[in-house]
Amino acid sequence: MPGRDVVLPAQPGGTATPAFAVTPDGARRGVVVIHEIFGRAPEIDRVVERFERMGYAAVAPDLFADGMKVMCIRRAVVDLWRGAGPTLDKVIAARDWLTAETGIPSDRIGIIGFCFGGSFALALGGDFGVVSTNYGEIPRNLLPDEMAPTIGCFGGLDRSMASVPGRLGKLLQDRGVPHQLHVDPDAGHSFLTDGDRPILAAITRPLMHVEYNAERAESGWSKIEAFFAEHLPT
User: What are the b/e assignments for 31-41, b being 16+ CB within 10 Å?
Assistant: First the structure.
């Protein structure tokens, strides 16, 4: 089933949100996909379509659609720091839309985020059935009291994230949250999504290595797929 552009209804006091979605007949599980700091991009649409091939309904809201990107990023960072606000509301609205569209209950809907989106996945991890955070910083408001089972993928070449797996693992362990945290020594930042940004890759290579790696990506995706299959009910 091909993906399609949709518009998610506005929340009280908010605005409608464009999104990209797949809602295959018979899907019994779903996932909300949160984009990187680049905003909606073709590689994020392809993540949505990848989940459809895995048997999921999926939706990726465009969190930067209602203004200048730099202002949307600023607002999103403030919302993340506060642990509340319109950007987080849009993510929950995407989950609720998926439930209304497909009948899949919220405890069968997971969340996956990349970079910036990985932080949002952690911040909202109490509102979903399973969490996948990928090379995202731990939000300043830490984690929800009731955190869903969590998998995290990080690149060992990404020195900007070097301390995150250890700190996140301790937080999850202390709360008794089922989790897997993987650090791939041969991968850098953004290794899971197949965007093509050669200039960014070149200028970030000493610190972050922002670059897609097909071989390492498939290794990471196999872990994510297995974790979702284990922890999301059908």
Answer: bbbbbbebebb
Tokens of 228: 């979702």
User: In the numeric block, which tokens belong to residue 160?
Assistant: 């900007």
What single string gives the DSSP state of each residue in 72-89? HHHHHHHHHHHT-SHHHH
| Residue located via tokens 């070449």 | 157
Q: For the chain, which residues make up each domain, given as ranges?
A: 4-231
**Contact status, residue 220 vs residue 153, Cβ threshold 8 Å:** yes
CATH assignment of 4-231, among 3.50.30.20, 3.40.50.1820, 3.40.50.2000, 3.40.50.300:
3.40.50.1820
Q: Mean pLDDT by 10-residue block, N- to C-terminus, for the chain (234 residues)?
A: 86 84 95 90 95 96 82 84 88 96 96 94 95 94 89 95 95 96 93 84 81 93 97 88
Its pTM stands at 0.94
Whether the CA torsion 130, 194, 23, 53 is positive or negative: it is negative
Q: For residue 32, report the phi and psi dihedrals to the nearest 5 degrees.
A: -100, 130
Q: Could you give the residue ranges of the DSSP H alpha helices within 83-150?
A: 86-102, 116-123
146 by Cβ neighbours in 10 Å (0-12 / 13-18 / 19+) ranks as exposed
Q: How far apart are CA 171 and CA 187, in angstroms?
A: 24
Q: Helix crossing, 69-82 with 116-123: angle to 10°?
A: 30
Nearest to 58 by CA among 35, 36, 31: 31
